[in-house]
# Entry
Amino acid sequence: MDGEALEALRRAALFATFRDEDLAQLGHALARRDVRAGGTIVREGDRGRAMFLLARGRAHVESGGIDLGALGPGEVFGEIALIVGTTRTASVIADEDCVLMVLDQEAFEAFAVEHPTLALGMLRHIVETSSARLARMNESLGHALRERGLPRRIEVRAWVDGEPRTVRTGTFAHELLPATKDGAPVVAALVDGRARSLDVAITSECRLEALTTAHWEGRRIYRRSLGLALLEAGARIGLRLSMGASLGFAQRLIVEGGARPDTAARLGEALERLIAEDASLVREGLGVPEAVEYLERAGQSDAARLVRTTRQTTVTLASYGDLFMWQGGPLLTSTGRLGEADVVADGDHLLLVFAVPGHLREAPRETMARQRLARESGLPPVDVALRAREVSRHSVQMTEQQERWLRTLGVGSVGDFNQRCIAGSVGDLIHVAEGFHEKSIGRIADALAERADEVRVVCIAGPSSSGKTTFIRRLRVQLQVNGLNPKGLGLDDYYVDRDATPKDEDGDFDFEAFDALRLDLLGDHLARLARGEEVRTAHFDFRAGKSHPAGGPSLQLGDRDLLMLEGIHGLNPALYARLPAAKIFRIFVCPLVQLPFDRLSRVHASDLRLLRRIVRDRHGRAQPAAETILRWPKVRAGERKHIFPYQHHAQEVFDTSLVYEISVLKVFAERYLLEVPPDDPAQATAERLLDLLGEWVTIYPEHVPPTSLLREFI
# Structure
């Protein structure tokens, strides 16, 4: 036996337990066969009694014209025919000039007489590998048939983080991706830019990337998975829970019937057990009628109403145990991937306090551990729980009026709203929603009129795409109805010189930084205006990047005048340090109350604002949706730093959300999101937003009144 044949035998898994002297003995039983490129080594349907070892060259297997995979040096085929002599079930074609070593049945029987132990080892390995190969083939063929009909290839090419790899059809994404990336856990796969659960099967050529909690879409998947686990844990101890509003590092939990003193501890322990159990994600695909029947029987009426209005014929439900919920997007494949979380009491309800592993803003793990220790020992709660309760109370104060109003209208979920649209009563709902806005603005104007003798400065702030421009315009009208005269002052005219502007971590000018303003100059002007003095205001030359302290118009406030000041720092007390508190009236403007889809998930206010901004920027400024999406994390970071920490200073809160607006934004946003290229980094968010829009019945923009705040974006 030559060295090439010996090396091929060494590479073959079938002979992995053979020593070189054993391989040499086997080599005497092998016959060499040369096949030119394009030649048939084995023909489908022929009777065979030999096994082949490919020593040199490459070949492929095919059946019925379908390519079933490639063969390379060291691979063995035809071994079943060696044992029982059977009809070949596939053809093997040489792709290159090939050298093969052939072991026929007669030579094998002679080898078995001389070396029975080696022959028995070969037979055992043939049975084991054939069984495993059959199982893999069944799984791959199952995926091929289920996912896309029968594919042309059983092996496909996947670019894993940019590196090409040939994988068997049906290979799961988690088999190709790392568990962590750059210190953050991998929670999902990006398949051609679209987020999928890690157990997605690869059935066609694709780009595959890891999605971690360092990305906001990864954090969404983590939080949703944690919510599903929590609802399952609650069901196991007899609790019926609904996920409430997100509070950033915590989330409100609504307990049907209210929480008892021991509920938080019991639920926290049940969640801990479920995570330790590492329960696998289970899915059930049901037809719409069957899904509606199950959801109604399970007491999930909101989800049932939502599913009734879907355009799909089937619905996927998901569970980490016995409680199945509307899936609504990718999820972690098991509960063991979840990290630290705790449940604390919050009046009649609960708060879920958690850390997102790999996320820079996560609550420190030692804080979570101390929180659990405090709960178990009966000690006072640590700061994270106190902070969560404080944020929760403020959130309830801001949203309870709008939520109560929606319940009165009978619109408690997206499914409820869709049913109203289908029933033809959405026109009335639009008029009532707009009337609620107008009444709220009028109430704020009345509050200012009552304090007209003392208030001189009205400060308005809110996050991006909150509708501040329209709110201010409508508030001005209501103030004038009350006999007040609003006058404007722009914070943009109080920027420092360009070369003195602070820079962010990327080295770009940070115009949102508090120190980007001439605070001393602004404070002096505000104090003098509040005293009734005439002030020559500042002007900023944006082209030259220069501040002119007295370059603006003169301004003086009369007895019935109010100074309207709008800007990102409008709620920060440091901006008005030189003004008496009684002379300041702060208003926080933001869309707050959003409808739930079901007990697990709801529309996020930040998603509504992003949709508003996508439509406004693409419709009015020709900026592609992908650019808006990719800039959004930086916008959100500025809001978290400069606006939300000060929202509790506001005397009034105006919720700019309109219950019907997503149905209108859908008309524009669907097209703009479809413009995002498949290979764009914004694709995962674009697809999620498209899925969100798909759950709403469309309302055309001609139904929107001309004075509506929504007109600012469409």
The chain has five domains: 3-147, 155-212, 217-281+320-393, 286-319, 410-712. The chain has a mean pLDDT of 86.
